[in-house]
Amino acid sequence: MKKTESQVSLLDSRPEQASYMFLSLLADKIKVLIIGGGKAASIKAKSFAGRGCRVTVVSPEFSPEITLLDTGSLSLQEGRYQRRQLDGYHLVVIATDNNDVNRQIQKDCEQMAKLYLMCGDPGEGQFVTPLMRESEEAILALNTRQGSPRTSVFIAEKLRKELEDHDSFIRVVCELREQLKGRDDRDEILKRVNTDEFFELFRRGQHHDVLRDMLSPDSQRPL
Questions:
Q1: How far is CA 6 from CA 2, 13, 48, in A?
Q2: What DSSP designation does 136 have?
Q3: DSSP letter assigned to residue 100
Q4: pTM, to two decimals
Q5: Domain identity same for 110 and 200
Q6: Do 58 and 82 contact (CB within 8 A), yes or no?
Q7: Which of 88, 92, 90 is nearest to 106 (CA)?
Q8: pLDDT 10s digit of each residue in the chain, 223 long?
Q9: Full residue range of the structural domain in which residue 89 is found
Q10: How many domains would you assign to the chain?
Q11: Do 62 and 71 form a contact (C-beta atoms < 8 A)?
Q12: What is the C-alpha separation between 213 and 220, in angstroms, rounded?
């Protein structure tokens, strides 16, 4: 379909798209230092601590939102930033309202090879936190390349519902994967199970006979 002049203009004026690489951190092994005590710091503290990270917040003063956070994995340290505070932390969140202090922390992080997030200017940092949604059996992380939080929420909610529709399927396949350990045909069976054809049989409750046949050592019956 031919684009209108206004559509072409909008596309031509788009900002450079970010290039992301997602990592799934084992939260209970991660130590996060948040420098700053305001609203941005409280949002990040709630997010990281809520996922199980060990979080320390350093600031001369703290907003009520931070002091009211009820989590055993969060500690508050009253005081101003000092470079030595970076020792022992995997991730650093820079969230003060002083640009000079923020730049100094950024410089220190780069010299000490610390991954850092810049709350005031995410593009100046080394990582951002994606929007997360989860079902019983899966977790979804999402960023839009050009940075549209409301769009991320809209899309993530649609995808979360899709995940929920697949929860029982994921559960059964994960259990099957464990049962197949040690079998030479394990990968082949899992390839056949993780298909649209098998999922449709599963959705209709018609997968049991097919699965039983697939697990038979002498069966090569196609789906």
A1: 12, 11, 41
A2: S
A3: H
A4: 0.82
A5: no
A6: no
A7: 92
A8: 455 554 444 445 445 677 889 999 999 999 999 999 999 999 999 999 999 999 999 999 999 999 999 778 999 999 999 999 999 999 999 999 999 999 999 999 999 999 999 999 999 999 999 999 999 999 999 999 888 889 999 999 999 999 999 999 999 999 999 999 999 999 999 999 999 999 999 999 999 999 998 888 665 444 4
A9: 21-129
A10: 2
A11: no
A12: 8
Q: How far is CA 217 from CA 21, 135, 193, 198, 221, in A?
A: 41, 34, 16, 19, 11
> Is residue 39 located within the same domain as residue 123?
yes
What one-character DSSP code corresponds to residue 4?
Answer: P
Residue 96's domain is classified under what CATH number? 3.40.50.720
Taken in order 195, 197, 202, 207, is the CA torsion positive or negative? negative
Work out the angle between the directed axes of helices 196-203 and 149-179 (0-180°, nearest 10).
90
> Which parts of 72-195 fold into alpha helices (H)?
99-111, 149-179, 186-193
Residues 109 and 67 in one domain: yes
DSSP 22-56: -----GGG-EEEEE--SHHHHHHHHHHHHTT-EEE
Structure tokens at 42: 């409280």
84 & 159 share domain: no
Domain boundary among 129, 164, 195: 129
